[in-house]
């Protein structure tokens, strides 16, 4: 992945200010995967997106991620470090053993298969667009199954999503989780004070956006100070390396 320049990152940040969290996550994913058609990003398996965002975070801000979490048992404020590079490597998107389907032999849609007890079911791994579409449904799991079901056959007869019994639905959920483990990154942290474990979801898109927002505001302050001191334009200042910008800022402070 090519590291995006400061001007492009600022453009991503500016566009994201008017977006909801889902829109910001998509903008970050576009930054992480400029090699892919933007229309393909929302349908990629969720775990693939998470791995891409961890890779982007590592490229922009380094390996070390500082996380704060309140103990669910005693309320103690816990701070610890995570390794963005390790997450990017271990998530790695969907299991390569699953079937991949697509027109003309292209690997576009990742499908898991559940075959047991007379049932033969093929189910497409959900993408971000699928999860967004069913988020407000009365029965999100049922709506997701209906949306992502490729085929369902029982004893040789095709059936619809509404005819899948609860045990088969559970097997589908288990198969999807096994095929795309990176879709749900959950931390399980033991409190150093009380010893109890606290579980919490790590939302890398939200975490990365918070970092990008802080970075962008710092950079714009740098631009303001250097433009005031030297009369340079924003493109000229952003073309400087971070090290040279910092050096010029130090010179300004010494004057």
The percentage helix is: 40-55%
Query: What is the residue-averaged pLDDT?
Result: 88
User: In one word, what is the shape?
Assistant: elongated
The profile of the biggest β sheet is: 5 strands, antiparallel
> End-to-end span in angstroms?
40 Å
Beta-strand proportion: 15-25%
Q: How many H/I helical runs?
A: 10
Question: What's the total number of strands?
Answer: 9
Structural class: alpha+beta
For the biggest β-sheet, the strand order reads: 3-4-5-6-7
Radius of gyration: 23 Å
Low-confidence stretches: 95-107
Q: What is the string of helix and strand elements?
A: HHHEEHEEEHHEEHEEHHH
What can you tell me about this protein's structure?
- This is Phage baseplate protein.
- The chain is α+β, with helices and mostly antiparallel strands.
- Helices cover 48% and strands 19% of the residues.
- It has a five-stranded antiparallel sheet with strand order 3-4-5-6-7. A two-stranded antiparallel ribbon has the order 1-2. The protein has a two-stranded antiparallel sheet with strand order 8-9.
- It starts with 5 loop residues before the first helix and ends with a helix.
- Residues 95-107 have low confidence and may be disordered.
Features:
255 residues, alpha+beta, Baseplate_phage_T4-like, two-stranded antiparallel sheet, Phage baseplate protein, five-stranded antiparallel β-sheet, elongated
Fold topology:
Layout: H1 6-16, H2 21-32, H3 46-61, E1 64-70, E2 77-83, H4 84-91, E3 99-101, E4 109-116, E5 119-124, H5 128-134, H6 140-148, E6 149-154, E7 157-158, H7 166-179, E8 186-190, E9 197-201, H8 204-230, H9 234-238, H10 242-254
Antiparallel strand pairs: 1-2, 3-4, 4-5, 5-6, 6-7, 8-9
Helix pairs in contact: 1-2, 2-3, 2-8, 3-4, 3-8, 5-6, 8-10
